[in-house]
Design goal:
Shape of chain A: globular
Largest sheet of chain A: 9 strands, mixed
Radius of gyration of chain B: 22 Å
Mean pLDDT of chain A: 88
Helix content of chain A: 25-40%
Oligomer: heterotrimer
Chains: A alpha+beta, B mainly alpha, C mainly alpha
Strand content of chain B: under 5%
Largest sheet of chain B: none
Low-confidence stretches of chain A: none
Shape of chain B: elongated
Distance between the termini of chain B: 16 Å
Helix content of chain B: over 70%
Chain lengths: 527, 272, 319
């Protein structure tokens, strides 16, 4: 029987029999549909990547106001477009480690203040010009100088000097940072000829594809770069289609109009997977849905009020009802197991008695105004309603105010003292804490000012001993958990889905959705 | 009188009355609290939850009863405002003619030609989103549509011989509007009113969708449809109940409107 | 000069004046709305320096009046300017979007307007009998269900379950041939037809019924004409004014108000384009869209008024 199945697998892989036939015949010899499906996927995978074909992706987040300039990229579609045509100096490996990309290798001085990146030899831009150290320097300059309007500006603030040295680039920092290579993997920092100073949106880079048609907010079409240096990029053509509506995206996948989608709504993910030709991929990541309080504004200035609200939230219920189980409970820090150097703390539970106790201790008796909107995270108004109910169980009166989606990120988030919000997370703990919890951070959206925390953060950057560094991050996490303004009930999983027309999905790739956005480059058209 | 009510109108009256009564007596009828989470997500209907539960486990019947209250109240008041202002100015424009007509008509053109999304965003971001403001904005925006229709109808009637005759008799404008034009313009207006009422119901849910409408945990029927729409493609009916409620309300209100239409035409001594 | 020509000249010049006021109002509106384009572009990843740099580059530090006049100067010379966010030429990007919107609106109107009038006539012909009630009931139900719900339901059944039609319009490309394009937009056209049918049909029915009371209809009936002929030849022409008004309202809706349908079916039309740019506070694009929408409204209203006059001899030859 095993031989028969092997024969079937080969036949199906070679395209001699259809998937449906394979499933039917496998069922005939007593193999369950799920097992047969896995078997077939393995067989297709084992056969190795096939070249050619068109791969279509349905993605959320694109807008007609997007630009191809990587400095201005803010959403999934813009990010994915950069992945097609561009590459940064470094990239995140599957296991969360950092590795060279346009840089062949890199090394740091002993004090982690001076970094040298050796540029990969013999690679060219899609316009045929070879990549030089000067191009890299110009790229970093464009994103970090005084004139810059780049999304990566905040990451590069510590850079004091960048220069070319033969085929290497030397980066000097103001203060030590052991994580610099992680920062330079940022997607905004795709290396462009001349740094893209002349033509920022020309979409010319070293990536495996060349953009041949771009209608912003609608579609981006790219064809394989025949001279690409690496071994990714199997499809002959990739089409990115913007499908912002959840139901439409799923319908397009189920009917085969697209081969791959991101952001399957958790509510319906289990149902989507029942379709015979669709597989839903669940990847845990650093993204978290949060309620944020300003630690310097009454009544949240009182840590007892903050603690009361932290005990007044029912985290399991949130994961069940908002994420429908596709996620994990949070513990009031922005860090979870997806980060390197993670330390687990005792889980904080819903405890109406403790919530009532802390509220009473604070002496605050008024109601708490919580602002929310549909776009702060999917299901935010519902999550707010659940929070209101669980707080009511502790005698705490929460009032909900729904704000317009339009303008939420400029008028409410980081401006009002208590609201719902979302963080996508960062590749390292240092980056996450630096972005949102350092006293001087631009996006310190909980107004967390803690001297001890700031000192620990700076010390950890220069600390090259992993064990000590891990302890420091644990201490910082504990400070945020017990004194911060962050109520983090849940970490959401990334839910992507593919049809069986494409193969090569790898589970557990570190980073963000769609195999850290490498899925279209590493998967191939199988049928 | 009762005997003359045809079957269709009786059904319409019954449902309209039922919905209005449920709206008025919501707190006494609803089995649970409006925002109370009483079960799991999207439970099927059972003895405890006649219509099942919604997307976060609240009793759907309760949500529907309270939602109907919001929906019906806002739609009724906004429709009333829209028709009184729209029809009054429409008739006035048609009867007065000249610069009054031009000024009013062009003003309405101006308001109508600004995309309502921008209009709603601007107005509601400047003013606080409370129910009275919501009703006024909706009624005002909608009255422009009523204005155009009533002006068109009235302009047609205004040149009829009997109106000329009335004017020659020396009747005042008010008399002409209310005694000559209004009765003859009533049927298209009543037909329109039934529909406008439904557009109001849908408009509230559009506003809720933009985050400008009803504040959670309160909801309107359109909002409940939206909250539960994800399930529709997988046979979860929670979104269908409020949709059916809106549809039956629409049909019954319009059945009543049709009946009124018939009665007004027969009052006129026509052939009915 | 015939009154129609005079009216036309008068209304077109008034229309231009109106467009000017619309542009002022929309500009003022976008200034009042909280947030600005620089903030919207950089979003969560912005820093104060990057914001300041972007604002300066976009000329957002100039006083509003100066920005408006600069924009107006361009428009008068036929230059709509470039988008602040994407840097693309507005006239060409918006042009292709407008073409798409008009394409969808054209097909939806082509099906729904004649169908609505035909169903309206049918309802009058069989007044108070089952065809009338059936037509009324079905169209009322279709109008009263939120349009996104109708869209999801037809998308699921016709697109995913039965695979009869494409569930979304992602296959729509402006340069494809007409059949491919129609294949891509079949579902949105269907939904739009359902959404606007009831309104026009009911108005047709009501307006004709109103006329049916007149003495001349009785005369026609006594002459022994068939019911359909009476309705079509005598009643319908005299009830055109309100019908045309409602038809124009719905045509305008097809051009201006189909955002939800565009989003759900992923159709690259004007609605989505406008919403994206409003949320990014991209003032020049919002202005340009506003002008186009206003022109459509004013144009259609003008058509409605002219048709009303042409079909009513008393209005055509005022005493």
């Amino acid at each position: 029987m095993k031989d028969y199945l092997d024969y079937l697998k080969v036949s199906a892989t070679m395209g001699r029999i259809s998937r449906r036939e394979f499933m039917g015949r496998a069922a005939a010899v007593g193999v369950t549909a799920a097992a047969a499906s896995t078997m077939l996927a393995d067989a297709v995978h084992a056969a190795g990547p096939q070249k050619g074909g068109i791969m279509r992706l349905g993605l959320q987040g694109g807008s007609t106001t997007d630009s191809l300039d990587p400095a201005l990229a803010t959403n999934q579609v813009a990010l994915m477009a950069i992945r097609l045509w561009g590459e940064s100096l470094t990239e995140l490996g599957d296991d969360g480690s950092i590795q060279g990309k346009v840089a062949e290798s890199f090394s740091a001085s002993a004090d982690a203040k001076t970094w040298t990146f050796k540029i990969r030899e013999g690679i060219t831009f899609s316009n045929g010009k070879p990549v030089t150290a000067e191009d890299v320097v110009a790229t970093i300059e464009r994103h970090s100088d005084d004139e810059a309007k780049s999304g990566a500006l905040g990451l590069l603030r510590d850079i004091t000097n960048v220069r070319a040295d033969g085929d290497s680039v030397v980066v000097e920092l103001n203060s030590a940072n052991a994580d610099l290579p992680y920062l330079l993997a940022d997607y905004h920092l795709a290396i462009q000829p001349g740094g893209g100073k002349d033509a920022p949106d020309a979409a010319i880079g070293t990536g495996p594809y060349i953009v041949k048609e771009a209608e912003m907010g609608v579609r981006i079409v790219a064809e394989k770069n025949p001279d690409y240096w690496g071994d990714t990029g199997h499809a002959a053509e990739i089409e990115l289609l913007v499908i912002n509506d959840n139901t439409a995206r799923v319908a397009a996948l189920q009917s085969g109009q697209v081969d791959m989608i991101d952001r399957v709504p958790p509510r319906t993910a289990g149902l989507v997977e029942r379709a015979p030709n669709v597989t839903v991929h669940k990847t845990s990541g650093p993204g978290h849905y949060v309620f944020i309080m300003h630690c310097d504004t009454a009544p949240f200035a009182d840590n007892d009020v903050r603690m009361a609200l932290k005990y007044g939230i029912n985290r399991e219920e949130m994961v069940d009802k908002i994420l429908h189980g596709y996620g994990s409970v949070g513990n009031d820090t922005p860090i979870n197991a997806s980060y390197p150097l993670y330390t687990e703390f005792e889980q904080r539970e819903y405890d109406p008695d403790k919530a009532a106790f802390h509220m009473k201790k604070s002496g605050y008796e008024g109601s708490i105004l919580l602002r929310t909107s549909d776009n702060s995270f999917p299901g935010a108004p519902d999550a707010a309603a659940l929070f209101q109910q669980s707080c009511a169980g502790a005698g705490i009166n929460v009032e909900i105010k729904r704000e317009p989606n339009d303008g939420y990120w400029s008028e409410v988030w980081n401006a009002q003292p208590f609201c719902t919000s979302y963080w996508g997370g960062r590749p390292t703990q240092d980056q996450m804490f630096t972005t949102a919890y350092l006293s001087t951070a631009d996006w310190n959206d909980t107004r967390f000012h803690n001297e001890k925390f700031d000192q620990l953060l700076l010390a950890a950057r220069a600390e090259l001993d992993t064990a000590k560094r891990k302890q420091m991050y644990a201490d910082m996490g504990m400070l945020v958990r017990n004194e911060g303004g962050l109520i983090c009930p849940m970490f959401n999983d990334f839910l992507d889905a593919t049809t069986d027309r494409v193969a090569g999905w790898e589970t557990g790739v570190a980073g963000f959705a769609l195999m850290n956005s490498y899925a279209p480059l590493r998967m191939w058209v199988a049928a | 009188m009762i005997k003359t009510i045809p079957m269709a109108a009786a059904i319409g009256l019954f449902f309209t009355a039922l919905y209005f009564l449920m709206a008025i007596f919501a707190p006494w009828i609803a089995p649970y609290g409006m925002a109370e989470v009483v079960g799991d997500v999207w439970e099927p209907s059972s003895g405890n939850h006649l219509l099942g539960t919604d997307n976060i486990g609240r009793d759907l019947l309760t949500r529907m009863i309270y939602g109907g209250r919001t929906t019906i109240f806002i739609a009724t008041v906004a429709t009333f405002i829209s028709f009184t202002t729209g029809a009054t100015f429409g008739f006035l424009a048609a009867v007065m003619g000249g610069w009054v007509d031009q000024a009013l008509s062009r003003f309405v053109d101006l308001i109508m030609s600004i995309p309502s999304l921008i209009f709603a965003l601007v107005v509601l971001s400047v003013m606080p989103v409370t129910i009275p403001v919501l009703v006024l904005v909706m009624g005002f925006l909608d009255s422009t549509r009523v204005f155009r229709l009533s002006r068109a109808v009235a302009a047609d009637i205004n040149v009829m011989d009997f109106v000329e005759a009335a004017k020659l008799r020396g009747e005042g404008r008010i008399w002409v509007i209310f005694r000559e034009i209004l009765p003859n313009a009533l049927s298209p207006l009543v037909a329109e009113m039934g529909l406008r009422f439904i557009f109001m119901v849908l408009f509230i849910s559009t506003l809720s969708f933009l985050g400008l409408g009803i504040q959670p945990p309160a909801a309107d029927w359109g909002g409940i449809v939206k909250e539960n729409a994800d399930g529709i493609n997988y046979g979860i009916g929670a979104a269908l109940y409020p949709a059916v409620a809106i549809a039956t309300l629409a049909i019954s209100v319009n059945l009543v409107a049709d009946w009124i239409l018939n009665r007004t035409t027969s009052l006129k001594g026509g052939r009915g | 000069m015939s009154p129609v020509v005079r009216l036309l000249a008068q209304r077109i010049s008034l229309g231009l004046l109106l467009l000017f006021f619309v542009s002022v109002l929309i500009f003022a509106g976008t200034i009042i709305l909280p947030g600005d384009v620089a903030q919207a572009i950089l979003g969560q990843s912005a820093t104060p320096e990057a914001l300041a740099n972007l604002r300066r580059d976009m000329g957002l530090n100039d006083p509003p009046l100066q920005r408006y006049l600069a924009w107006l100067g361009g428009v008068v010379q036929g230059d709509l300017g470039t988008s602040l966010t994407s840097g693309q030429d507005i006239a060409s990007t918006m042009g292709s979007r407008l073409e798409n919107t008009l394409f969808l609106a054209f097909w939806a109107a082509l099906i729904s307007v004649p169908l609505a009038i035909f169903l309206g006539l049918l309802a009058v012909r069989f007044r108070d009998r089952w065809p009338d009630k059936l037509i009324s009931g079905v169209t009322l139900a279709s109008i009263s269900v939120p349009e996104f719900l109708i869209a999801y339901v037809v998308m699921f059944f016709l697109g995913v379950q039965f695979r009869w039609l494409n569930p979304t319009a992602v296959g729509f490309r402006p340069d494809a041939d007409v059949l491919t394009k129609l294949d891509a937009i079949a579902l949105p056209v269907l939904v739009l037809t359902l959404v606007i049918l009831a309104h026009m049909m009911r108005m047709t029915r009501a307006a004709i019924l109103n006329v049916m009371q007149s003495a001349y209809i009785e005369t026609a009936e006594l002459k022994g004409l068939t019911m359909f002929k009476i309705i079509w030849r005598h009643a319908f022409p005299n009830s055109i004014a309100p019908v045309v008004n409602v038809v124009m309202l719905n045509l305008a809706y097809l051009v201006v108000g189909v955002v939800v349908i565009e989003v759900v079916f992923v159709y690259p039309g004007m609605g989505q384009y406008l919403v994206d740019h409003v949320s990014k506070r991209d003032v020049p694009v919002v202005q340009a869209c506003g002008l186009v929408f206003a022109a459509v409204y004013i144009g259609l209203n003008l058509v409605a008024d002219i048709v009303s006059i042409l079909t009513n001899p008393r209005l055509r030859h005022p005493k």
